[in-house]
Amino acid sequence: MKKLFVVAFALVAIAFAPQAFAQKMSNPMVGGAEMYPTKDIVDNAVNSKDHTTLVAAVQAAGLVETLKSAGPFTVFAPTNEAFDKLPAGTVGTLVKPENKATLTKILTYHVLAGKYSAKDIMAAIKKGNGKATFTTVQGEMLYASMDGKKVKLWDAKGGTSYVTIADVNQKNGVIHVIDTVLMPK
């Protein structure tokens, strides 16, 4: 009986292992942390050591509850290094309460309503003869094209950013990690 129990337990473990492994490994690691498709955008982002500045900015702008909502959203998530490219003192100034409106405008420029995978973005680029246009939650246009095999984004001021990690699925959307902060007009 004991052997039968051990064999049955082993078979159950083997039967469920591929599902657990697939769920655990279905997303790339971001900032040294696992990103779980069963968690929302905020709950995953707070675990990424590469996104502490973004998380602090989202908190300062009061956007936590929005990004925890059902969505779906597509978030182009700048890394800490992306924020470091801004002129010295910019981030410190933006997170002050008196600059909340400006910070919110910048952060919501990084968000699209709906879930756009890298495949969806590349299909839009192809359909647009090499350039796709998306309306951000902030209301301005964000542009995408291909630069070799990389997705390149253009902001309203002509600045560019590249997607460095694509398709980090969340329960309320998808994150694409980018290397430069995008700026609205």
Question: Which features does this protein show?
Answer:
185 residues; alpha+beta; FAS1 domain; seven-stranded mixed β-sheet; 39% helix
Give the overall pLDDT as a whole number: 83
**Distance from first to last alpha carbon:** 72 Å
Helix amount? 25-40%
Largest sheet: 7 strands, mixed
- Which CATH C-level class is it? Mainly Beta
Reading side by side through the largest sheet, how are the strands ordered? Answer: 2-1-7-6-5-4-3
Percent of sequence in beta strands: 15-25%
Instruction: Name the CATH superfamily assignment.
Output: FAS1 domain
| CATH topology heading | FAS1 domain
Rg calculated over all Cα atoms? 19 Å
How would you describe the overall organization of this protein?
The protein is an alpha+beta fold and 185 residues long. The protein has a single domain, classed as FAS1 domain (Roll), CATH 2.30.180.10. It is built from eight helices and seven strands; from the N terminus they run ααααβαααβαβββββ. It has a seven-stranded mixed sheet. Helix 3 (52-61) packs across helix 7 (100-108).
Write the layout of secondary structure elements.
Elements: H1 2-25, H2 41-45, H3 52-61, H4 64-68, E1 73-78, H5 80-84, H6 90-94, H7 100-108, E2 111-113, H8 118-127, E3 132-135, E4 141-147, E5 150-154, E6 160-170, E7 173-178
Parallel strand pairs: 1-7
Antiparallel strand pairs: 1-2, 3-4, 4-5, 5-6, 6-7
